[in-house]
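SEQUENCE-TO-STRUCTURE ENTRY
===========================

Subject: a protein chain together with a token-level encoding of how that chain folds.

Sequence line: the amino acid chain in single-letter code, read from start to end.

Question of interest: how does this chain fold, as expressed in backbone structure tokens?
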Amino acid sequence: MPSDPRSDTLIQMAQRIQAIAQTGLTYATSPYDVERYSELSAIAAGMIAGPEPDGIHLASRLFAEQRGYATPKVDVRGVVFQEDRLLLVREMEDGGWTLPGGWAEVGQSAAESVEREVREESGYIVKAVKLLACWDRDRHPHPPIPFHAYKLVFLCDLMGGAPSASSETTEVGFFAEDQIPPLSLTRTLPEQIQFVFEAMRNPAAPTAFD
């Protein structure tokens, strides 16, 4: 089901307000400024969560954990092929399938992060060999999340390992282009699956970016 553009715009506004509040709280020295930026953060939490008090409390706590100058988060995804079939993992959270991946880790390069994520979520050992895409998540029709994020999609060579689910995934499999199962749209979109198969067929294609 397509998302409501008005709701998406509201979420993006809340992301921006929270970024201003977070950065302001980092540098504010006046108690009055701290109070104002804290109020902005509370407004952003309300916009993200809607009218439910528990949701607002959860969003406020999530925002309170963020420190320093606000920047986009980095989501890394691994593209692994075996005989023209694509590696996907099934998410425990929503039951949908996705390219293996997750948030990049502090202290690791983006390539190291995607190799770790693929290993943890699927059991396979891979080597990142090419950056296929750098996408602004908000410019693609994913369901909204509280934070602005960039998605880095890496082509990876399969080096070894064996299929193994994790604490976040329930199944692991390789799928042909015409047999892709229902996707976890928060993480991976059908047009992104189409893109990676096209990248497989055209290895000389340049990196895509927004």
Observations:
- The first helix runs from residue 5 to 27.
